[in-house]
Amino acid sequence: MLHAPCSMFYEKMSKSITLKVETRDIVGKKVAKMRKENKIPAVMYGNKVAAQNLWINDLDFARAYNKAGESALVELEIGKEKHSVLIHELQHDHRSGKVSHVDFFQVNMKEEVETEIPLEFVGESAAVKAHGGVLIKNMDSVSVKCLPANLPEKFVIDLSKLVTFDDHITVADLKTSDLVEILLEDETVIALVAAPRTEAEMDGLNNKVEEDVTKVAGVVKEVAPVVEEKKK
C-alpha cells in the first residue's frame, strides 16, 4: 500500500462561539407550546454538576451549531454565568425535522475529552479525473482525545494527493498538534480511489445479480408456460 505524499492539516477554532440561553422551569407537555414560540428546550450536565434545564432561541442555536458542530467548544451565557460546553446530542421532530431538544455537556477545561472531529475533503483526485476511478471515503470524522482548549475544528483532507490507484490517505497522514491524540490506528484508510470496472466485470456482476435474485426467499423465477398441442 502506498501513502500519498500528503500535507493534511487541522484547523483550530479561530474565535470563541457564544450562545445566550435562559433557565427553564417548564417541563412535560407544556414545552410544546414554547416550541411554537421559536424556543428549543435543552439541558446542560456534566463536570460533576447538577443538570440544568434551559431554553434556546432556535435561530441563535442554528448559527452556533453551524460553526461548532459537535466538536468545538461553545460558551453558554446564562445570565452573568458562563459555561464551556460541547453540543452533545440533538433530537429532531419526526414530522418537521426541526431540532426539538439539545443536550449540552459541560467540560472541565483541565480534563481531557473524547469526541469526533469532522473531515473536510478538498481538491480533486487525478486518479478520478484522468483515469475514471471511483473515489471512496471510508469515514467523515475521526475520534480524538485532548484538553477542550486544544480541540481541532476540523481536519482538511487534500484529495489531489490521490494521483494513482495505489495511493491511499490514512490516519498516519493527518498532521496535528502533539497535544491531540487521534484514537485510530495509523494504518486506517481515510480515502482511496478504486479502478473502474471493466466491461467483462460489469457483465459478470449483472449475471451474478440475476442468479442471486432467484435465491431470495419468496422470489420465484418465471418460466414460460408450455402449451400442449391438442390431438387432432
For the structure shown, list the relevant keywords.
232 residues; alpha+beta; RNA Polymerase Alpha Subunit, Chain A, domain 2; Ribosomal Protein L25, Chain P; five-stranded mixed β-sheet; 4 helices; globular
Care to describe what's here?
The chain has two domains: 91 residues, Ribosomal protein L25, C-terminal domain (RNA Polymerase Alpha Subunit, Chain A, domain 2, Beta Complex); 92 residues, Ribosomal Protein L25, Chain P (Beta Barrel), CATH 2.40.240. It is built from four helices and 15 strands. The protein is of the alpha+beta class. Strand 7 and strand 8 form a beta hairpin. The chain has a six-stranded mixed beta barrel. The protein has a five-stranded mixed sheet with strand order 2-12-9-11-14, with no helix packed on it. The N and C termini lie far apart (74 Å). The chain is globular, with a radius of gyration of 26 Å.
CATH architecture of the largest domain: Beta Barrel
CATH homologous superfamily title of the largest domain: Ribosomal Protein L25, Chain P
What general outline do the C-alpha atoms trace?
Answer: globular
Radius of gyration: 26 Å
Strand content: 35-45%
Q: What structural class do you assign from the helix and strand content?
A: alpha+beta
Strand order of the largest sheet: 3-5-4-8-7-6
Task: Calculate the mean pLDDT score and round it.
Answer: 85
Q: Would you give the CATH topology of the largest domain?
A: Ribosomal Protein L25, Chain P
How many structural domains can be distinguished in the coordinates?
2
Total number of helices: 4
Low-pLDDT segments: none
Level-1 CATH class name of the largest domain: Mainly Beta
